[in-house]
Amino acid sequence: MSREIIKKAILLAFVFFKSYKYDMETAKKAKAKERLYSLDTLRGFDMLWIIGGGSLLGALAKATEWGWVEVLAKQMHHVPWDSDSLSQRKERGKKWYF
């Protein structure tokens, strides 16, 4: 191969990779600006309940005795977990499906 062809190939590769790097940096900056704030809000709301928002709501219901807060506080209570495995259902003569 002649040196001219090699030089042109190197120059072409350099230009290609330089423009590719630029496009990737531009894309990363654009993605950083395009945050979905509604999703961030939902995650924060979920984290509130995971870390104990239900307990806070129950304490607020007891302290204020507001009806609407008491209704919401009642929603924070769950039925006890019945660890009914498939083998336990089979032993009691029940079907494996519900």
Description:
With about 100 residues, the chain is mainly alpha-helical. The protein has 2 domains: about 1-35; about 35-98, no CATH class. The protein has helices at about 5-35, 35-50, 55-65, 65-75, 85-90. The N and C termini lie far apart (about 75 Å).
Number of strands: 0
Q: Which residues sit in consecutive blocks of at least 5 with pLDDT less than 50? A: none
Encode the helix/strand succession as letters.
Answer: HHHHH
SSE class: mainly alpha
**What composes the largest sheet?**
none
Number of domains: 2
What's the pLDDT, averaged over the residues? Answer: 77
Number of helices: 5
Strand portion: under 5%
| Rg value | 31 Å
> How far do the termini sit from each other?
75 Å
Shape: elongated
Helix content: over 70%
Keywords:
2 domains, single chain, mainly alpha, elongated, 98 residues
Task: Write a brief caption for the model.
By secondary structure, this protein is mainly alpha-helical.
Strand and helix map with partners:
Blueprint: H1 3-33, H2 37-50, H3 53-64, H4 67-74, H5 86-91
